[in-house]
Amino acid sequence: MQYKAGTATVVSGSEAVSGTETQWLSNVQPGDSFVMAGVGLVYDVASVDSDTQLTLTAPYGGTGKTGAYAVQRDFTSDGIPEMAQGDIETAAIFTRAMRKLQGLLGQLGGVAGTGATIYPSIAAGKAGTSDTEYFWVSDSGTLKLYQNQTGTGVEQGEYPNSTTLQEAVDALAGYEERVLALIQSLHGDLGSLRLDFINQSYVVEGS
């Protein structure tokens, strides 16, 4: 669930956010997302300085204002925000989630396109490849791509492994259910509604 107690004040061009009747020390942590109601701009929290002071990772780009806000606190293990009934600015948060998923799926294409073999270590990869050939090494939730450059394993990039990608797919399926529940709670006259994120389509059946 989002943390939305009190009100927040943001100033255009400033990373500082001040709160009134907020308890941010016990309810917010670095890495959470911050959004002002009615603005649609999502920022990451860099630090929680006090119960009434946050610092964002980037200067606030919208118009300065005081009012309702939300801190997104729930994420999957690979950083995709999770929405719940009653959240605000769900469109902005949902867009960020979809972009994250899109990036993960794009990385999957990069993983599949190399044709390189996965090795248990850099040393094993160097021993099993020739000069200029590529190899993968699994490392705590990711696959790192290396190139054998005259006997040295030079890292080329980092990609999610199959477990991380499956979590992303599961999160996508979960979003379909949450969005359906949210839309139908607001528009009960729609009848049956089906979403297809992959093909970017929807079907509404009369009630």
Structural notes for this entry:
With 207 residues, the protein is α+β, with helices and mostly antiparallel strands. Helices cover 28% and strands 33% of the residues. The strands form 3 sheets. The protein has a 7-stranded antiparallel β-sheet. It has a 4-stranded mixed β-sheet with strand order 8-9-10-11, with helices on both faces. Strand 9 and strand 10 (142-149) form a beta hairpin. The longest helix is centred in the middle third of the chain and has 25 residues, at 90-114. It is elongated.
The helicity comes to: 25-40%
Report the average pLDDT across residues: 77
The tally of strands reads 13
Treating each run of at least 4 consecutive H or I residues as one helix, how many helices? 3
How many angstroms does the end-to-end distance come to? Answer: 31 Å
- Uncertain residue segments: 197-207
Estimate the global geometry from the Cα principal axes.
elongated
Beta-strand content: 25-35%
Described by strand count, sense and barrel closure, the largest sheet is: 7 strands, antiparallel
In spatial order, strands of the major sheet run: 6-1-2-5-4-3-7
> What class, by secondary structure content?
alpha+beta
Q: Taking Cα atoms only, what radius of gyration do you get, to the nearest Å?
A: 22 Å
Return the string of H and E elements: EEEEEEEHEHEEEHEE
Topology:
Elements lengths: L6 E4 L5 E5 L12 E4 L5 E9 L2 E4 L8 E3 L1 E4 L17 H25 L2 E3 L2 H7 L5 E6 L2 E8 L2 E9 L1 H25 L5 E5 L4 E5 L2
Parallel strand pairs: 8-9
Antiparallel strand pairs: 1-2, 1-6, 2-5, 3-4, 3-7, 4-5, 9-10, 10-11, 12-13
Helix pairs in contact: 1-3
